[in-house]
Amino acid sequence: MTLINQNKRIGYSQFFAGLVVLLMGLIQVGCGDGEEPSATGGSGAEAKPSVVTTTTMLDDLARTLAGDHVEVVGIMRPGQDPHVYEVLPRDAQAIASADLVIANGLNLEATLHGVIEGNAKGKVVYAAEHDAIETLGSEDYEGAPDPHCWMDIELWKHYVTSVRDGLIAIDPGNQADYESRATAYFTELDELQTWMTERFAEVPESQRVIVTSHDAFNYFGNANKIEVHGVIGISTEQAPRPQDIAALEAMVKERNVQALFIESSTSPTLNSIVEKVAEQTGAKVGGTLYSDSLGMPGSGADTYITMMKHNVNTVVDALK
Ligand SMILES: [Zn+2]
Question: What is the CATH classification number for the domain harbouring 246?
Fold first, then answer.
């Protein structure tokens, strides 16, 4: 059953890639410029290198390291779920004209992967597919690595290195700037980790267990000694089975789990299951966590660092 799921997922990716390539052809033949995002600089001045990012976390990272040396186009908007993102024809166009495409990889962008492979002409960085990142497995997708590596700050640092090196490769003239911004960002990440460790110390070890809508927090849990359970596995494409929900309820009662959490980028159906499990077991809903997307601008979780702070504060305040 697991294998069938995986095959089906790959099939969809290929289907979408083919469809988008076809649509691009039709658009080019049939009409002029639409309102596709421009990945190049303004006319007259020398065009800046163009960078396309998939998720909102990667968009934040690219902008943090690049400053105004490059033009960054983010494909996904805050709140969009990368597992089931609906590819637009303009995405393929942006990817085709980019000097650098930055994606997570490890099949997080299940629908976009084929579009990147089929259209990218410049450099492509799959930031989670770094040699130094040891991935966790998945109970639900046998053999498939868990793609949510950004949830561990130490692993996110490898994303930083990959994106920095990608920027240097397409724009070597600004190497010193990319390196100094990355160094400053590493310091901020170290400060974030120190603060996180202090906050988690407020939670007694016996209470360090949480339930979330989907399995996006395994790396987060690993790094911070929190036991994490998801209503469903590492992708939001599946529907939970009744026996999984029953087993989860039993676990919540047995382990006396204090709080369950909904996620900002997963479906309302999935989040309502979390609320029902909380109701059935007497546990509370501890709040909303940002898993696969940053928050909207002004939400207080619109950068990687503020998103992590929001998640830690929400978890610690609910568990302590
Ligand atoms: Zn996810």
Answer: 3.40.50.1980
